């Protein structure tokens, strides 16, 4: 391709990019997602800062539960305050008023627990654990066994685990990055790929394409559309992805060294390749019809295929990211842009597989670009009835 041949492509791409970025739908949609991310961050921060606390009173023989209750509470994530209640009647009044969560009286093995309505689940488990400890200690002491000595012996028991591979403390973060990358790519490719098809149909139905093609060739118009809208999708991907990373970092669920740079580079590279592939398919499919009402009928086979592949691959990533099914799926060109970045983020994709997937996808994309350009050139000027695939695959006209 000569610079002169690429100049119209750049102009078309610039027009498509400016029209979409300045459009209300792009601005409002992006802002809405950013607001939702901000709300999510605020909710997570509130939950993280909130403490599960309880305040209980013990009276009579149940005061023997004070130590076991305080030791059992941290295992349930509960911050527990235990106070003595010399006057049980006053303590019951405090429970009714909401100043106490529970009053424990009677036998420490089978105590009476007085609550306003029903005990909190965590508090109930703490009380059960504490009574079990008291009952066990009483049983052992009755048979001349020191409970503390038994606890020391039990604490020293346990298996010695030897791993063939050292555990990855960032496995959860890597999985989150991989799944987020796969979802963002799926969302962006589906959204802006369909936008390419709708733009083709709109220009075709309004006959604008006839004016445009009087100055440029069909392949230049197709490539300009793909590049322009691909840049729009990439911009939104960077904005939303960056906001998502900021939210994850602020919430404390993402470490800076969790394969972040390699994941971002991988997502961007695979996005560009995947968008070129799918946008060309969508543009070629859109050129087969002349009305917006018919657009969905030609896009459905592509969107359903991608959706099914995404659902299957998403489940495979969460269950067995090293397994053969997801490995094969990530090597297949139509799905490589979705799942290979995720496997790279998880650290389970060998370099050889990444190179092979990239080469296969590049070759497949080149073939799709050639085939899609042929279909587009043969169909984009035909109005009226839907163009059959056989006609669209005939000899190019211009």
Largest sheet: 4 strands, mixed
Q: Provide the helix percentage.
A: 55-70%
- Distance between the ends: 17 Å
Give the radius of gyration.
32 Å
Structural class: mainly alpha
Q: What's the number of helices?
A: 15
Mean pLDDT level: 80
Strand order of the largest sheet: 2-1-3-4
Number of strands: 4
Tell me, briefly, the overall form: elongated
Tally of individual domains: 2
Strand residue percentage:
under 5%
Order of helices and strands: HHEHEHEEHHHHHHHHHHH
Low-pLDDT stretches are: none
GO cellular component, one term: membrane
InterPro entries: ABC2_TM (IPR013525)
Membrane topology: Multi-pass membrane protein
Protein name: ABC-2 type transport system permease protein
Structural description of this entry:
This protein folds into two domains: 3-38 and 171-392, no CATH class; 53-144, Periplasmic binding protein-like II (D-Maltodextrin-Binding Protein, domain 2). It has 398 residues and is mainly alpha-helical. The mean pLDDT is 80. It is 68% helix and 5% strand.
List its traits:
single chain, 398 residues, mainly alpha, D-Maltodextrin-Binding Protein, domain 2, 2 domains, 4-stranded mixed sheet, 15 helices, membrane, transmembrane, ABC2_TM, ABC-type transporter activity
Secondary structure layout plus pairing:
Layout: H1 3-21, H2 24-49, E1 53-58, H3 66-72, E2 79-84, H4 88-97, E3 102-105, E4 112-114, H5 121-142, H6 147-156, H7 171-205, H8 208-212, H9 218-250, H10 260-286, H11 295-319, H12 324-331, H13 336-346, H14 351-379, H15 389-392
Helix pairs in contact: 1-9, 2-9, 3-5, 7-9, 7-10, 7-11, 7-13, 9-10, 10-11, 10-13, 10-14, 11-12, 11-13, 12-13, 13-14
């Amino acid at each position: 391709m000569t610079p002169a041949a690429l100049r119209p492509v750049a102009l078309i791409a610039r027009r498509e990019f400016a029209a979409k970025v300045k459009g209300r739908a792009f601005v409002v949609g992006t802002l809405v997602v950013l607001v939702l991310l901000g709300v999510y961050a605020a909710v997570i921060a509130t939950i993280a800062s909130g403490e599960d606390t309880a305040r209980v009173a013990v009276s009579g023989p149940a005061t023997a539960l004070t130590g076991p209750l305080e030791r059992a509470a941290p295992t349930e994530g509960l911050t527990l305050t235990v106070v003595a209640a010399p006057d049980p009647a006053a303590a019951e009044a405090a429970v009714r008023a909401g100043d106490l969560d529970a009053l424990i009286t009677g036998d420490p093995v089978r105590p009476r627990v007085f609550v306003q309505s029903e005990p909190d689940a965590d508090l109930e488990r703490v009380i059960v654990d504490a009574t079990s400890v008291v009952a066990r200690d009483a049983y052992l002491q009755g048979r001349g066994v020191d409970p503390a000595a038994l606890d020391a012996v039990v604490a020293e028991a346990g298996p010695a685990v030897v791993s063939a591979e050292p555990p990855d403390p960032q496995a959860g973060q890597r999985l989150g990055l991989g799944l987020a990358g796969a979802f963002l790519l799926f969302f962006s490719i589906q959204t802006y790929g369909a936008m390419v098809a709708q733009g083709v149909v709109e220009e075709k139905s309004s006959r604008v394409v006839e004016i445009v093609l009087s100055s440029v060739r069909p392949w230049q118009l197709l490539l300009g559309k793909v590049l322009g809208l691909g840049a729009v999708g990439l911009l939104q991907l960077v904005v939303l992805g960056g906001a998502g990373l900021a939210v994850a970092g602020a919430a404390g669920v993402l470490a800076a060294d969790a394969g972040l740079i390699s994941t971002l580079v991988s997502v961007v590279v695979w996005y560009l390749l995947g968008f070129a592939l799918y946008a060309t398919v969508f543009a070629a499919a859109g050129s087969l019809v002349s009305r917006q009402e018919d657009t969905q009928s030609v896009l459905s086979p592509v969107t359903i295929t991608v959706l099914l592949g995404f659902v299957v691959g998403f489940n495979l990533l969460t269950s067995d990211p090293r397994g053969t099914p997801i490995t094969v799926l990530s090597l297949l060109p139509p799905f490589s842009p979705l799942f290979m970045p995720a496997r790279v983020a998880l650290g389970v994709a060998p370099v050889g597989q990444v190179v092979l997937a990239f080469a296969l996808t590049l070759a497949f994309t080149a073939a799709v670009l050639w085939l899609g350009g042929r279909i587009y050139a043969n169909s984009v000027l035909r109005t009226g009835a839907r163009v059959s695939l056989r006609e669209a695959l005939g000899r190019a006209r211009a």
